[in-house]
Specification:
0% strand, mainly alpha
Length: 36
Amino acid sequence: RETGCDSPYWLDSQQASQVIEQLKQWQKRVVRATSC
């Protein structure tokens, strides 16, 4: 959804890095929300 690609196989390296960084941010939000 964020990259406009339907499959991770079609991501280029920049898009893959973007997805990874977004997942890291999501993980931080989840950990913060569950640790309170």
